[in-house]
Design brief:
Distance between the termini: 74 Å
Strand order of the largest sheet: 2-1-3-4-5-11
CATH architecture of the largest domain: 3-Layer(aba) Sandwich
Structural class: alpha/beta
Number of helices: 13
Length: about 350
């Protein structure tokens, strides 16, 4: 095998110091008053011998890898994959690369992944945090690594985050069902203490309370779609007065549509449907599904802009930035009685 050319080899071949070569590689030739002629000579030689600088060595010299760690709950989920694509594109435009992974909302797995990212010396983190990660994130921040949380926050931790207005969005969606003539509205959510899920529940409860209507809340321990479908079928068997369902996530809505199909219930005549989180197939479904649509591009833009400002130390203030973005209620046929 051919030996890889090092910066020492370049310096020896050209009869100059390693420091001079290093200054040229790092774009500091003008600052160090290195002549254009010598710069051209070094760069031409590097091209001739196909010199490739070591990214690890460069990171050790500069303290930066220009890599950002992105950790989401499930990269295959349309919501998270859309955000990941947008963040990757925006990061690349600013000279950064993204490495990302799925945490499956598991605290221990997330800790292991953070350790792996730390070993790779990533410059900063964008994280969708599971419960119980406060100490780990605090340690990252104390070590000088900027962290931006997205989709949810950790109430006990003061850090940057970008979220949507979950409570107000759920309130508007539930109010829409009430105004459409539905009276026995259920809220199907996951069994979780995550703040975004609690905020959605709070918005649902607020709307029903204002109209003096009863609550029907079903919490599902989600493992897979089929298991969730059976839980929803059983719930509807017990609560036959329900005439509308607000699903707290799009994957719960998918399971719910299967359950309603099994029970032969007509949408929207016998039961109205709204989903939190849009999904491209909801528009194609018959009838099309009303959704609370989250602005994934805006979430990505705000998150990467905030992280880059921390990395470049451009943020005007050191105190945590708490960015809350509005959603859009897309009204389709599933929630309008004919």
């Amino acid at each position: 095998m051919k030996k890889k050319i090092s910066i020492t080899d370049v310096a020896q071949q050209l009869g100059i110091s390693i420091t001079t070569v290093s200054f040229i590689l790092n774009g500091r030739a003008q600052e160090k008053r290195i002549s254009d002629k010598l710069v051209k000579r070094v760069l031409d030689f590097m091209q001739e011998v196909n010199y490739k600088p070591s990214s690890l060595a460069r990171s050790l010299r500069t303290g930066k890898t220009n890599i950002i760690g992105l950790m989401v709950e499930d990269i295959s989920d349309p919501f998270f994959s859309s955000i990941a694509r947008a963040i990757e594109a925006l990061a690349y435009e600013n000279g950064y690369k993204i490495i990302y992974c799925s945490t499956e909302n598991a605290t221990d797995k997330t800790r292991e992944l953070i350790a792996m990212y730390s070993e790779r010396h990533v410059d900063g983190y964008i994280i969708v945090p599971p419960e119980g990660l406060e100490q780990d994130i605090e340690q990252l921040i104390e070590s000088g690594k900027p962290v931006v949380l997205i989709d949810r926050y950790l109430p006990a931790l003061e850090t940057d985050y970008v979220i949507i207005n979950n409570e107000e969005s759920a309130y508007q969606a539930t109010t829409h069902l009430i105004n459409s003539g539905y009276k026995n509205i259920a809220f199907v959510t996951i069994d979780s203490l995550q703040p975004q899920m609690l905020d959605r529940l709070s918005g649902y409860e607020k709307a029903l309370s204002e109209h003096g209507l009863s609550q029907f809340v079903k919490e599902i321990y989600y493992k897979n779609s089929d298991q969730a479908t059976q839980q929803i079928v059983s719930f509807l068997d017990r609560k036959q007065q329900i005439d509308a369902i607000f699903f707290a996530t799009n994957y719960l809505c998918v399971s719910g549509l299967k359950a309603l199909s099994q029970k032969g219930l007509n949408i929207p005549g016998q039961i109205g449907i709204v989903s939190f989180d849009d999904y491209e197939l909801f528009e194609l479904y018959t009838p099309s599904v009303t959704t609370v649509s989250q602005p994934t591009n805006t979430i990505a833009e705000e998150a990467i802009s905030l992280l880059l400002s921390r990395l470049k130390k451009l943020a005007k203030e050191n105190k945590p930035q708490k960015i809350v973005i509005p959603t859009t209620l897309i009204i389709r046929k599933s929630s309008i009685k004919s």
